[in-house]
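Morning, I've got a small favour to ask if you have a moment. Here's the protein in full, and shout if anything looks odd to you:
***
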Amino acid sequence: MSKHEHRTEDEAGGAPDAVELTRVRQLWHLLEPLHAVLYYAPEVSEEMAALGYDTMERWPSYFPLRAAPLGPVGAERVTSAFYSFSPRMVAEHMDSAWATAAPGAVLAARLRGIDRAYHALFGDRVNSPELAEAAALARRAAEAVNTAGRPLAAANAELGWPEAPHLQLWQAAMILREHRGDGHIAALLIAGLDPVESLVSFAAIGAASVERFESRGWSAGEWESARERLTARGLVDEHGEAMDAGRDLRHRVEHHTDRLAAAPWQLLGTADVTRLADLLGDFWVAVLSSGLLPSETTLGIGKV
């Protein structure tokens, strides 16, 4: 069966139990920092600056870096795929993105940047057998993803694999991260949470501060209107704090996201998933201890 053929959870070995979902969540926590280096490493910023992008702040390079696998798409399709960003913010950065550099040039720049960044972060361990083994396992999981209905996962999965193991590890982390993210959007849609409501409801349970979520470009009026809609549904109170129903809804969203992200890990198997988690630990620590990543993100890792 190819990675593009439809496969249900039952066909993949049955719905995962709570222990397996805990492991799915753990692998996300371990791989997310390895993927997110793309948006914060100075080496990547230097490569993007060389192409002509403004790197004095994060967003002018973030949007083309993440959207490049989709090809020369415009702001509307990027807004759809990224979901929680204000359309105005996306347009601000995407309307001129491909006039600065073509998507292919951005894809090459991000690989060059990650190559340099991983060497800086991991030193001689870039060439270690442990990293090579982790890369092989992560690649197997990434090649097992079902990309149907998942545009960002599909776009990244369609790219050729780089030869170096550390770059394969990063690309696998990217594919698996976008696979999870595409599934998360499906879970939000099922929950009836539009893009700004998804942020307001997440802030309401303490996933991150309102100020952090405001980086997605929504106006104060749009945020307040979303809060009022959620209040009318009995999900948050007038102060923006989650009600019991709101916490329950967000729990269901995260649980559904884990279930939708589980199939590649089930196909990898318990022993190999456990081995991958063990192998990733030192590299995860190296990224987190580098200080590159912000202490607070909009992902709610460790809080949901």
Q: What stands out?
A: Residues 18-189+253-289 form one domain.
